[in-house]
Amino acid sequence: MSRFREPEYYDASAEALYTMLPWRFARLRDDTYVLTNMVGEYLTLPRSELESFATGALPAGHPAYNELKSRHFLFDDDTNVAIDLLALKTRTKLAPLANFTGLHIFVATLRCEHSCPYCQVSRANDDRTEFDMSEATARMALDLVFKSPSPAIKIEFQGGEPLLNLPLLRFVVSEAKKRNDAEGRDLAFVIATNLAMLTEEHLEFAREHDILISTSLDGPADLHNRNRPRPGQDSHQRAIDGIKRARAALGFHRVGALMTTTSASLTRVKDIIDEYVRMDFGGIFLRPLSPYGFAIKTKFYQSYDQRRWLEFYFEGLDYIIELNRRGLDFIEHYAAMVLKKMLTPLQTSYVDLMTPAGIGIGALVYNYDGTVYASDESRMLAEMGDQTFALGNVHKNSYEEIILSDKLLDPIEQSFAASSPGCAWCAFEPYCGSDPVFHHATQGDFLGKKPLSAFCTRNMAVFRGLIERMEADEEVCAIFERWANLI
Amino acid sequence: MPVNGFSLEAAKRAAYDLMGSLDVSFTLNDQTLCCELRPTGPDVDAAAAEREFRRSLLDHELRLSTEQRTEPMRSAILGLAFSKTGLQRE
Fold this sequence. Notes:
The complex is a heterodimer.
Chain A: E1 18-20, E2 23-29, E3 32-37, E4 42-46, H1 47-54, H2 63-70, E5 74-76, H3 81-94, E6 103-107, H4 135-145, E7 152-158, H5 166-183, E8 186-192, H6 200-208, E9 212-216, H7 221-227, H8 235-250, E10 255-258, H9 269-278, E11 283-284, H10 293-297, H11 306-325, E12 331-332, H12 333-343, E13 363-366, E14 371-373, H13 376-383, E15 390-393, H14 399-403, H15 406-414, H16 436-443, H17 454-472, H18 474-486
Parallel strand pairs in A: 6-7, 6-13, 7-8, 8-9, 9-10, 11-12
Antiparallel strand pairs in A: 1-5, 2-3, 3-4, 13-14, 14-15
Chain B: H1 8-17, E1 22-29, E2 32-39, H2 46-81
Antiparallel strand pairs in B: 1-2
């Protein structure tokens, strides 16, 4: 047997005999195109090389050939392992779907002492206990929670301000733990709180049950207090004090924070990031306003457009990259979740970046009155009088009736990106999600016309922006690789 | 605008992608597909939008031929990926 191939094999000018694997492309800028394979691995090529590859004319010795081969865009006589690897990676990406709902949101009360104009839910004054979840409702909701096959169950308390209904929180945690003794799930709890009413009793309860705290921090004091008014105008001071006390009581990394971008935030992105750095957070999630609930009523949602938000986002992203260059480990969470999809074989559990859509599958919401919603945004939409995504009620409907209802399955099926116009041929589809709630709210149908969709515009700009930054700078590549594997 | 040599599917996809800036009407005469482009508003640069439509047509034509050639592979990979889920009935 000869130990070497025939001389023709090494002739770089020879036309290759390769089989193309499924791939898509999109123009990145001018003559440069992004190519993605079935599982989102990408590379960039000039148009001429893309055409050469697409027509089967790319020579084996061309520098792009081995790149395309190693990233499963083609296979040849040398090896056809790419088919098995793509199948394995496809399975890996979709595997979490089989676990079904892992996040269960309990709306403990609508009461809140803040009056944030961008709030996506209608708050009730803090003396209106008729907007509290009852133990009977919580018990029925827990029946549904433990019907989910997910091996990991996270129960998140939201509001209003959930700490205003501490007895209900105590009941749910105690009851869930009791049931889990037999179930053996990986059970976790989160309280989403503004921390303004935080007491030692709350902290003791959270410490006893290893509960995570998620709070709101919109930036430095003047901006935060403007965005989040409360009696005394001291929301920022209370949030900062609460973060410090919670970290001391529960552990440094048991406290997270989220921000929302208002029109007042748009010129302040560096100040906002600096506030997160000052408070020693490991990252920030630069989030736009959502077109739901109180944010619509108060016209906050219309206060800036997508273009302006993207300028804000990329100014912030570039600032964070600069901080990383100077040696600070700090991430932007949305970018990190997208990068996880771009650079690893894994998926994110963030509902907005899931397809099939994450509604119901990624999260279920149990409102104070027992109504079950397909997502937090579905509840916000209901606050505007639109009950499209109200799936049933814990007192009236079984788990099967809720999960197998057309109200849930229709939007999931109709919005599935891989078979949607625009998404089916989009090179960025492997990174994107389906958001039937957003498109129903903004366009009146679950699928939405993507060229007119702010969701699509925002995501496409983010995907292009991340790839452009990696293409331009190897140091950014290394930073982004780290982010992708952190989250 | 006559677009000889392009498929109707490529033209429909290009029209879909550019619906934010162009309204496109199609007329098929014998073997010629005519696309009438109208800007969706006064702020649309009609010449730039038409250029974008032509580029989009070219891209979609290439996408369609690529999709056709790779469809059997796509089906094979998805079949392989889902063959061991345990969800199929015997």
